[in-house]
Amino acid sequence: MQRYQLSFAKVNILSEHIAEVIVGQDVVISLEMSEEYDDFLTKIFSDNFALLINKINEYDFSFEAKLSVASHENLAAIAVVTYDEQSKSSVDKIAAIRQRDGWNLKVFNGLNLGWQAGLDWLQSELNNEVLNN
């Protein structure tokens, strides 16, 4: 597994088309960080890909970052693994703001084997994407 360190997050490449993202504790993701993230994903993935967001830490987004994060054209699916109700609520709020973008997003409970379920779901979504194209 390849591991990368961005200015605000660790990224683990789990497969040819899936990356796990772990944002640092108490980070406030800025528009610049969001752009750093998108640039990184563009360098790593040349085709459709999926993200497993592992919310083991608490963090937030600036308003501008909420409007731009996860808008990469090749992003096929996002699985978010949360560990408490507050984290799930923050995901729901950002998803509501970005509802028009039509994210293929699903939230999984990390306390109930959600990490593996999220990874399995992403693989299934990518397989469906291949079959439909």
Automatic annotation (TrEMBL):
The domain of life is Bacteria
Name under which the protein is recorded: Uncharacterized protein
Q: Which organism is it from?
A: Colwellia psychrerythraea
